[in-house]
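Usage

Read records sequentially. Each one opens with the input sequence:
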Amino acid sequence: MSEKRSQSRRHAVQAIYQWQMAGQDIADIANQFLDEQDTDTFEIPYFQDLLRGVPTHLGELNELLKPALDRAIDSVDPVERAILRLGAYELIYKSEVPYRVVINEAVELAKMFGAEQGHKFVNGVLDQVAKQVRSVEIKAEKR
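and closes with the structure output:
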């Protein structure tokens, strides 16, 4: 797990949160982050992929998360909602990233930005999602 990749996720969660709350254009948010952040500290292409991917696949991500949630996605804390959507996106579209890394990174983001026990919620939801979309990887790991 590279620190630059982790930093890309941190920025992506912040940007997705901003998009969810303000409804700003994703390109404007991306440009703002690129202008304000030290771009040597994170992987710009990964950040941009995450930031574009979540809104592009929002309906699919929400549907995937729905069975794992105990409430409507819009009722989930906005920070945790951004983290869950990012994690679900990585689980589906970033198969080169091991599912355990995706979940661990999401849990760390929830500890950093979320509510006090939010990391447990994020862990439980993304674990259920991983069982749906990464079942082959999970089974192979158990052997």
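Summary fields computed downstream for this record:
- The chain has one domain: 3-142.
- The CA atoms of residues 94 and 102 lie 9 Å apart.
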